[in-house]
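Treating backbone geometry as a discrete language has practical consequences that deserve illustration. Part of our work consisted of pairing the sequence of a single chain with a tokenised description of its backbone. We regard such an encoding as a compact summary of how the chain folds. The amino acid sequence and the backbone structure tokens for this protein are reproduced below.
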Amino acid sequence: MLPENEQRIRALCGDCALADQILNIIDEDAQLRRAELAQRQTEGLKRAREQGTQLGRPPIKRPRKFRSIYRAFQQGEISARVASQQLGVSPGTFKRWVAEERQQ
């Protein structure tokens, strides 16, 4: 709960014990709502996985010029950073593609 709202409740209830009880009830309700939301989210993800739904962003397809840039990278003509810039992807994506190529 926001501190401003807590201060308002304490100001409205002259009795500190009553304000504490009200704040406890509000806090418990918020905790229950968060738990219910997490449970629904977990169930939804489980159902989606069971149905075979693709979760997350789709993978980026390798551009046609990947092979030539990959060869230049292997031969040491360009760095991974330059190669990723030429392909228009992040350096991490390029490095992952390189690792996948080496596994094949």
In short: Residues 16-50 form the longest helix (35 residues).
